[in-house]
Amino acid sequence: MPPQARKRPGAALPVRKPAKGGHIGMVAELVAALQRTFSRHRNSKDAADMTRYVKGKFPYYGLKAPLRRQLAGEVIGSWKHAHGQQEIDKGVARQLLSALYSCEERELHYVGAEVCSGLLRKGLVGRDFLPVVKHGVTTKSWWDTVDIFAASSMSPYLLACGGGSPSPELLQEMDKWAVSSNLWLRRTAILCQLKLKGQTDLRRLESYIVSNASDKDFFVRKAIGWALREYAKHDPKWVRQFLTRHKSQLSALSVREASLHLSK
């Protein structure tokens, strides 16, 4: 990508009254600004490489993560200023996720997921936002967007909705996701406590893993190993005992991933 391309700012938006149509008009304006800006920085070679990386599932503009986040931040910042917004609220976020996921290029999906993830991590949304998370996990699904929710924001979301402790209501929903026919919901349930350390509900973690231990899917097996490896940083003894109890049920991949921290 030419060096000068990296210096071009995102599309500036003049200060204006709320767009006609309320949230719908505002969201359409933001999506169009993101599309214009991303298109101007398209890199065909990187786009082809990225498409191969996801096995041809999605086309790309060819924007690597640092540049994509920089451009998206500029466009969203300009949009907020134009509409007098301090933060994207949950109503706009819900519509923005849906609108961006309807676009073809994968970078736009990342923006939608990251906007929603930011609200989850900051504790700016409640339990009624879970359907938006579910949409983000089950639509245009691949590990890269799913983990923006599952690995990056579900743990702080559980704590925010529970007033500092994992929300019982959300965990009850995770019980359902853990046995869903949708593998990405199951991956999310397995990883939802990834950052909870001593607040991890071990009964649930064990239940989610055991109920998915025989799954043949790579991403489920990888999630099991990842969840155990992360908890081993807090309580390696528990993970060793878990592996002893369930090693015959777990895949070699799950066991190998779970044991990485234990060998240090």
Automatic annotation (TrEMBL):
Gene3D superfamilies, per the entry: 1.25.10.90
InterPro entries on file: ARM-type_fold (IPR016024), DNA_alkylation (IPR014825)
Protein name per the record: DNA alkylation repair enzyme
Organism for this UniProt entry: Symbiodinium natans
Lineage, uppermost ranks: Eukaryota, Sar, Alveolata, Dinophyceae, Suessiales
